[in-house]
Structure formats: structure tokens, C-alpha cells
Amino acid sequence: MPVCPIDTGRYGSPEMKALFEDESRLQKLLDVEAALAEAHARVGEIPKAAADEIKRRAVVGVVTLEKVKEREKKTHHDIMAMVEVLAEECGEYGKYVHWGATSYDIVDTAWALTMRGGVSILKKRVGDLRDVLCDLATENRDLVMVGRTHGQHATPITFGFKMAVYAAEAGRNLERLGDLERRLIVGKMSGAVGTMASQGEGALDIEQLIMKELRIRPAVITTQIVCRDRIAEFVCWAAVTASSLDRISTEIRNLQRTEILEVAEGFEAKSQVGSSTMPHKQNPVDCEKVSGLARVIRGLVVPALENVPLWHERDLTDSSSERFIIPLTFIILDEMLLTLVNVLRNLRIFPENMQRNLETTKGAILTEAVMMALARKGMGRQRAHEVLRGVSVRAFSEGVPLRDLLCKTPEVTAYLSKKEVEELTKPENYVGRVRELIDRAVRYARSV
């Protein structure tokens, strides 16, 4: 009976989950055994007929999951159980199965095959996120809205600018994944402590033949296992990427607050339910899911790092945790990416509320614009800051537009005309070089 939300079908795409299903993992192990036998046959270590038979029988339709699990009850060793079943199925040639290998030659190389497929999916997902963010940035480059710091109104930005910041971050995450992929996707066939002693004089040739057949690179050097800094790096990358998704989701959740409501998740008006008791609710449930799952991904970083310092040439403390860490990292991050891309593609944007919120402070968010204009006119930056601070405090306490008080302040009117003040206090006139910055960010993100 399923217990985990992944197994119940709640989280994870079919293509990502398929990589980590028991049958798929078993087949990858068998693929490595077949490649091992074929390499030994090519260097003359075992008969070609043996390699052919091992390859023919190294399929999950023959070496079934049921047989392996039943044998594991006796061996208490999953890889030895698989080896024994395969050897029995190969008859007289069974004695050549697993020739010169140790368990983690098979396991780690199989992990590489599985993770290669997972990385390919994640690269597409992050690329999709990058693309939708770039589109939103370009389409909304001139949609002016409040910029916020410390939860307070700061100075104006555009919605396109906000999306371009996220697009560039998605580009960096995609760039990082491409960089670490070459370190993560490696195999090994180096034996009990990594010296290749069991493979004989042709060990390096055997390794090359196996990795060429499987289309992966060999690790430069290993102990009994591929060193776990590689997996830790990937999980740390996943946590960084999950935090980037959390960042976007958290922003959407904040902007969807009733009193702000500048954007909102899509909502299926005909059937979607926001609350079991409050019929009016339209909650940002998908963004909340992304933020919640990000916490799980970040939680996987510690055990991944703990798996780096194993005893001597290895111990088994990494094995049990990795059965969780590796599949969960791929599957949960995949779910997060799919969810957020869907949110962004269906995002509801409310320009009228952005305009309303721009007017909330009655022009106070343009104090910097006026300050810099006064400074450039000759007042000096520090004096201009003090003047604008005093005027903005008065405007806030009296509940009047900043513009009106500025035009009644002699120190200001000595430098600026009424028309200049009016132009300086229009939000659309104080968004800096957002167009160029958006173009630069989008250009970078799309180049990755």
C-alpha cells in the first residue's frame, strides 16, 4: 500500500519517476553487468559466447525483480542477489558474471546512467522556466509597479524587470547544472578499494570499453565507490535551485495578498475550490506547494554532505540514505519546476492594482528622484536628502500628496519649477535603464 506522496501519484512526472522505479534501476544494474562481460570478452578474459549469453539474459524479463527480492532474503545483499540470479539464468556461462567487479562498480555506474536521464529532464525543466520568465520579462517591460524593500514601498520598477531578475537566476541555475553534470555523471570499474587489481593487466582498457558502451566517462580515480562530493554537489545545486523557485513562489504569494493583488495564480472558476468553508477563497496553493517542497530539498543537503566523509576506502552509511536522497532530489525538484512553470504560464496580472498601489503613498516613492534632481541642480546630495525627508514625513502625517508640499517648499521651488516637480513625481519617469537591463538579462538567460 503506497505511503509516500510520490508513490500515491501526487508528486512527480511519469518520466522522472520511471527512472527510479525498481524495474528501471534493476535494468540499469543489468546493463552494467552486460557491458562488463562484453568488455572482458573483447580483451580475451572470458569467452565471447559467455558475454553474448550474459547480455541476452541481462534483462528484467529474465532476471525479474521478484526473483532478485526473493534471493535477497537469503543473501541479505541486493547486488549479490542480482548476480546470483543472473548467473543461474546464464547456465554454464554463469561463472563469468560479475567478473572482477565489486558491488559498487555496478551500483555507482548504474546510478550514473539513472542520473544522466534525470539531469536531462531537469535541464529541460529549468530551460522551460527560463523561457517563460524571459517571455514575461519582455512582454511586461513597461508595466510599472511598486518596488519594495523591507516589505515597504521603495521606488518604481516594472513587472518585466522583476521577471528578468528571475530569468537571469534561472539561467545561472541552468549554467551550474551543465557545469556539474560532467562531474556527476561518471562510472567506475575499479574494484574493491579502487586499485583495479581484480581486473588484471587490461583493467584500464576494460574500463574504457565499458564506459564507451554505456556512453559515460570513467571517474579519474575512486575508492570502492565514486567519491560522494559529486552527489553532494548535485544535491546542493538542487537546494539552490529549489530556493530560487521558492523565491519566485514567495513573491507571487505576497503579491497575491488581498490588499496588494498585483498578480495571482490561475484559478479554474468553474470547478476549483479555494476553501472547504470559505467559498470566496482563491489561494496561491501551487506556489505554497513549491515553497513547502523547497524545505524538503534543503533538508536533503545535510545527509548528502554527511555522506562525503566515509571511513577509509568506504563504509555503508551512504547507501541507505542515498536510496532516499537521490530519487527524492530528482523527483521533488521535477515537481517543483513543473508546478511553477504552470503557475507562470497561467499567471493573472492586474495592471490596475499596480497603478493603485503606486498611488498609495501619494508620491512618496519618488522622493529619491526629487532628491537627485535637487542635488544635480546645486543643492547638494546631503541637504537634498534632509529636505525630502522632512517633506515626506509631513506628507505622511498630513495625508497629502508629496507633490503639493514640494511645490510649497521654498527650498525646493528655488531649484525646481512646478512642471519639473510634476514630471519627477510620475512613477513611469523613474524606472532608470530597465529596458536595457531587461534586454541584457534576457539575452544572458537565453544564451545558456
Strand order of the largest sheet: 1-2
Beta content comes to under 5%
Per DSSP, the total helix count is 19
How far the N terminus sits from the C terminus, by CA atoms, comes to 43 Å
Mean pLDDT: 95
Give an account of the 3D structure:
The protein is mainly α. It folds into 3 domains: 14-96, Fumarase C, Chain B, domain 1 (Orthogonal Bundle), CATH 1.10.275; 103-264 and 288-356, Fumarase/aspartase (Central domain) (Fumarase C, Chain A, domain 2, Up-down Bundle), CATH 1.20.200.10; 364-424, Fumarase/aspartase (C-terminal domain) (Ribonucleotide Reductase Protein R1, domain 1, Orthogonal Bundle), CATH 1.10.40. Helices cover 62% and strands 5% of the residues. It contains 19 helices and 6 strands. Strands 1-2 form a two-stranded antiparallel sheet. Helix 8 (203-214) links the parallel strand 3 (186-187) and strand 4. The chain is elongated, with a radius of gyration of 30 Å. The chain starts with 13 loop residues before the first helix and ends with a helix.
Features:
448 residues, mainly alpha, Fumarase C, Chain B, domain 1, Fumarase C, Chain A, domain 2, Ribonucleotide Reductase Protein R1, domain 1, two-stranded parallel ribbon, 19 helices, elongated
Topology:
Elements: H1 14-20, H2 22-42, H3 48-57, H4 65-75, H5 78-89, H6 103-139, E1 144-149, E2 152-158, H7 159-184, E3 186-187, H8 203-214, E4 217-218, H9 229-255, E5 263-264, H10 285-299, H11 301-306, H12 317-345, E6 348-349, H13 351-358, H14 367-377, H15 381-398, H16 402-406, H17 410-413, H18 418-424, H19 434-447
Parallel strand pairs: 3-4
Antiparallel strand pairs: 1-2, 5-6
